[in-house]
Amino acid sequence: MEGKLLEMFEVGPCEDDYQLGFLIGQRFCNQIRSRLAGDLILQNQLLPFARTPHAQPLLKALSETNQKKFPRYWAELLGTADGSGVPVLDIILVNFRKEILPFISKTTMNSNADTTDDCSDVLIVGDSMAIAAHNEDANVALVGHTYLIKGKLSNGLSFIAYTYAGELPSCAFGLNSQGLAFTLNSVPPVEDEIVPAGIGRNFVSRDLLEATSTADALARIRSSEVSVGHSYNLIDIQKRMILNVETASKSRVSVHEVGTTPFFHANMYLHLQVQQVHDENSISRQKRAAVLPQGSKTDFLSLLGDTEDTKYPIYMTGPTLYTLCTTVIDLDERTLTIIEGNPKYGKVSHVFSMSSNELNLKLVNHAEGTHL
After folding, report:
1. Does an H or E element contain 303, and which?
2. Residue 294: which residues within 8 A CB-CB, separation 6 or more?
3. Whole-number Å distance between alpha carbons of 95 and 77
């Protein structure tokens, strides 16, 4: 299965956040409409649930809570809906899918639509190498339905965000002109750990794109009272530092600083004490990563490209989950590289400079077929 070439849209500064969202929605209206039409989770679970009386209080509270906390990003979301010409409800549902799905009765869940998102990261900060490598895994409905947003804000800050069609930038990974970057991993707390109508994870990650320092990024994460859990890998080029931050509802946060021992993170809590769903996929990937070489960048790419376990491979090719791309953030080279296809073969599509002396992020290479 091959997706379309990953496109980048440069936008901003805009007169307001609604216009930013509107221009993104307008530019990618075809991808957004196609994604929504083919998204089985939206069509078979979220939309039917949204039409029930039981859903109304949850949707109303989610909308009000997030609009109050993040009015700018809420305006951006509305602009995306209007710009793409799709119902606002559809855009709200895909942006809050992780906050809504736990409250849909299991008897009404469509068994053909897997609700799991999976990503894998391997991280190290050693004497000779400081790297964050990340597989962006998602439902196959997202293949061909992602794009890059290069946004410039009126305050001069720029960001680049890998974005799912119709969602806020970025629920995947991003970087900004302050020398900060992040990648994300879903983590599945049990139902009792989930608080309804909290802050949505898409809004937290959108906020991280505007963080000015690691301390600021942590403050933004800590100040958001989320519904469900998430794992953030914060990368600070200036400080040559990587933090893995695991979060849960009720303002629970645990921070682990990555050091010389390679740190592999799939989709399970590793250091925050939270009751979590037993996820065979993550457990399998975690065990497989533990026996693979992790001594070089090439080893990291081979690990993320591993398909030895046919049931739960680290590099996924369907039928339900698919590795959309791999990104490698090199803290010493100060670059973020996007690789399409199996990362073992190093098919580079984009390289972005994160050099501290550049006010604007610079696309330094965009040659499909270039190898690491």
Report:
1. helix 297-304
2. 122, 124, 262, 264, 300, 303
3. 9
Domains of the chain by residue range: 11-108, 120-362
Task: Please give the CATH superfamily to which domain 120-362 belongs.
Answer: Penicillin V Acylase; Chain A (3.60.60.10)
Cβ-count burial of 327 within 10 angstroms (0-12 exposed, 13-18 middle, 19+ buried)? buried
pLDDT in tens, 187-206: 988 889 999 999 999 999 99
- pLDDT exceeds cutoff 80 at 107: no
Around Cβ 60, how many Cβ atoms within 10 Å? 11
Residue 180 has a CB neighbour count (10 Å cut-off) of: 25
State mean pLDDT over 163-167.
Answer: 98
Extract the tokens encoding 152: 């410039």
pTM confidence score: 0.94
> Which structure tokens are listed for 225?
């009272």
% the chain with pLDDT above 70:
91
Please report, for residues 59, 139, 249, the alpha-carbon distance to residue 101 in angstroms, rounded to integers and kept in the order given: 12, 15, 16
**Regarding the domain delimited by 11-108, which CATH topology (the fold level of the hierarchy) does it fall under?**
Penicillin Amidohydrolase; domain 1 (1.10.439)
Span 312-344, pLDDT tens digits: 999 999 898 999 999 999 999 999 999 999 999
Find out whether the peptide bond into 319 is cis, omega within 30 degrees of 0. yes
Q: Give which of 157, 146, 42 is closest to 101, Cα–Cα.
A: 42
Query: 18 — phi, psi (to 5°)?
Result: -60, -45
Has residue 110 got a pLDDT over 90? no
Beta pairing partners, 371:
347
User: Pairing state of beta strands 146-152 and 158-164?
Assistant: antiparallel
Give the amino acid at 287.
K
Token duo for residue 242: 């990587």
